[in-house]
Each structure stands twice: as C-alpha cells, then as structure tokens.
Amino acid sequence: MNGMQKKWLHRIVALLAALFLTVPLLAQTQPVQAAANDTSLADIKKKGTLVMGTSPDYPPYEFLVNNKPVGMDIDIAKQIAKDIGVKLVVKQMDFDALLVGIETHKIDMVLSAMTPTPARKQSVDFSNVYYNSGQSIIINKTDKNIYKNYKNFANKKVGAQTGSLQYDLVKKQIKGVKMTGLTKVTDLIIALKTHKIDGIATESAVATAYVKNNPDLMVLNHQFNLSETDSGSAIAFHKGSGTLVAAANKTIAKIKKNNLTEKYLADAGKSLKVNVADTSMWHYRSYFIKGVGYTLLISLIAVLIGVVLGTLLALSRLSHFLPLKWLATAYVEFIRGTPLMIQVMFLYFGLNIPALTAGVAGVAMNSGAYVAEYIRGGIDSVPKGQVEAARSLGLSYKDTMRYVILPQALKIIWPSLGNEFISLIKESSIVSVIGVTDLIYQLRLVQAATYKGIAPYAVAMVIYFILVFGLTRLLNFAERKMQHA
Length: 485
Fold this sequence. Notes:
This protein is of the alpha/beta class. 59% of the residues lie in helices and 11% in strands. The chain has a five-stranded mixed β-sheet with strand order 4-1-5-12-6. A five-stranded mixed β-sheet has the order 9-8-10-7-11, with helices on both faces.
C-alpha cells in the first residue's frame, strides 16, 4: 500500500470513528422544552403506554416471580399508569444503564429504588421521594465480632452496585476502602459468601430480604452519615418532563396518604416466599430453556449474516476498486479495534434499535469483520496457478471465484470458521447487558429469584459445554466430509 492509499485509509477510519462517536450524541441531544410548552404527560397519553426501566434483582423493590417483574416499585408504576390512563410496559436493564435509557428515550421513567442525588438531578428530573429505607451493610455471620459499623471497614474490601448511591457513600465515608463494583447484587452476595469482599453496602430493605434467605449472612443497620440527598427513593424522568412528574407526584401523594407502600411491601414479601419455596435448579428449568432458545437464535442469525457480510468484505478488500477496498478495510479494522459490548450498546442506545435486533446486529457485524479476514486469508492461500489456469480456460473472474477459488478456500479456513461459530455461542452472552433474555440474562434472574449464586452458574456452564461440544462434533464431521469430497 503506497503513501496515498494509506492516507485515504486513515481518513476513512477517522470518518467511521467520528460517525460512531457523533451519532449517539445527536441521538441524545433533545431540546429541553420550557415549562409552558411541556407536553410530556400529553405525549404519554397519546402514545398509550408508560415505559418503565428497572433492574429486577433488588427485592423487595423489584424482582421476578415466574419470569414476571413484581415488587413495590412495580406496584407503584402500575398505579401511576392507571391514574394517567395508559398501559404500563416494563423494560429490564442493568442498573447502571437506566439513566442512559432515560437520556436516549428508550424508557419514560426509572423506578428502581433510585436515590435523587444532586449529580443525577443534573441529567434527569425526579419525583418526590416515595419511600425511605436507610442504608445497611451485609456481612458474613462469622465476622459479627469484627464489624460493628461502617467505620470498621477501613482498609477493607467493600462491594456495592455500580452506579448506586451506596457505591459513592462507601468511597466517601470509609477510609482506605478497597471498592468492588458489580452490576448485580446477586454477584456481590457470591463475592461476600466466598470471602472475596468483607461487606456489601445496600438499601436496608434489600439487605433484609437477602439475609432472610441466606442464614449465613447478617445485617448492620443504620450505617453511614446520611444527608437528605443520601436517603429515599424517587422516580427519574426525562429532563423537562414537568407535567409527567406532577402526575407521578399526585399518585405518590395518594399512595402515602393511604399507606399503600406497606401493602406493596407485604405483597412483595409473599412473592419472595413463592420464589424460595422450591429453589432447585430443576424447578427453574423454564428460565434456562428460554435462555438457551434466545442464545441459539442469536448465534444462528449472527452466523448467517456474519458469513455473508464477511464474504462481501473479503471480496471488497481483494477488489481493485480502491474506494470499495478502503471502505471494507476501514470497517474491518474499526470493528476489530472496538469492544463488542460497546458496539451492542451503541446500536441499542445510540441508534435506538430494539434490544433483540441490536444484539443480533451487533454480534453479526462483529463476526463479519473476523470472518472477512478468515476468508481473505483462505483466498490468498489458494495457489495463483489455479487462478491462471481457470482464466486460461475462459472462466470469468466471477466464475473463477465461485467454482475454483472459494471451494478450495473454504476447506482451508473451515477450522477457523468453526472456531468463530463456537465463539459466537459464548460471545453472544454480551447481549445480556441491554436486557436480551439470553442464557446469561436468565441465569441472573434465577440467582435473584432463588438467592443462590453458584448453582445457576454451574447449570449454565454445563449447558454451554453441551452446546459447544455438540457443535464441535458436528463441525468436525463436516470437515471430514469436505476433506474426502
């Protein structure tokens, strides 16, 4: 590649990078209307749905029973939707992605035991506080003589949910603390029980729920020095949603007047008993079956699209039409140079694509870039004499590729393609970050429902092994057939 070609290649890569960085910013840049022109409530009524975002691993606020979201926050959201006169739609997301979902208009509100801190108020509007729970620390019972309050955790390892108020409280108020931030409380519980961390900072109601179902744990209540902004849960809305916030506040006032939060908490407690009545993995087999179905669906579609896309990219990179060659090269280099998780989140949040579509597209686009390199390498491995012989017989470039080069290249690259297919089954788990119900996502739901951490992981490992082992044998069989063809 000469200097001029390199120059153009760099320009194309820079253009693609700028596009990936600019589009989500444009998608997030929504004009904030003045109060007099606020139509947020009218827009919800016109749409007919109120989309709630939540992370359902936080009992008694939000969790799953029989794969359906329940809990106090769900009941509050239902009441708000009923009072407005619309249908409630619940979207499940990781906690640290909820505010991004608000800002990119994937959801209308966040009900997930979120504290209205000053930092959060800069990007979203909050309702009035609907419940005050307090802050606690979960510890192992064996450590009850070591830890009496949060000050005893100086220079110790403490875990908290990423993006939560508790994470900030621990960092600010415990001297020399070694922080561990995870997106799921269930993962923090596992870390605590395996002594990778010494305590978990979380809401008092949540701590109580987990400890009731884990007899080897205990709670240190009433921890940290709390200000008015460090306690209480509120509902987050788009910035400038004054009329919608007012409608939510009206419902919250009614709930408080009738003391409905206590009823909602009592109902949540009954639902928790349903989950722990039978915590065997066999009882939750439907969760895993659903996850396997989505994992195979995503992998299959991604493989088909990836192979087609990879072939087109490989042929484009081998083309003598320089603009096409440079564009294909820029795409391959850019996709291979950025994490798959970022690509999936960009498609979902930045381009406002539905979760399943974004997951499939992200995995397929990523796979296509790698498949392109396998195919290009396979084509280059075919002796040039084969091409010359085919052309001398009068075959066109298209027929030469179709009947001579690609069949031989396929035999050469089949092991590499097989490894890519196998990797897709495992790498597709990344789509769980945007709420797609693949095997990993369902695993986390089982953890939240049963309060068991290790058993769901063990089941998922066995399932992945069976899938990969079966596919490996099938690919090896196909390879032997090709070698004898």
